[in-house]
Amino acid sequence: MNTQFKKGVLEMIVLLSVYKKDMYGYELVSEVSKVVNVNEGTIYPLLKRLTNEHYFETYLVESSEGPPRKYYRITYSGKERMNELLGEWNEFHETVNNFIKESDLHEER
């Protein structure tokens, strides 16, 4: 996938993932990678920013496999941001699709 496309939708995908259920970092990397190929070096700075902007809050849960895991939970502000991004995405998607249809690219020239 084009890097710029990925960058444009990554925040929305992360917000949607945590909206579905609270997740810890590595779990979130795995979930997001089902949609776009990302690594921890991409996700963790985004999680830090989203937490600093109060879209996520964090809490620790003990783990039988090592140290406690930091879980991310979406906040009310995070849900508002997610809905804002979804609205922008839907409008953008519709506009681009309409443009493609109107350009008759699907017909052989």
From TrEMBL:
Q: Which residues cross the membrane?
A: none
Residues forming the Transcription regulator PadR N-terminal domain are 15-83
Name of the protein in its database record: PadR family transcriptional regulator
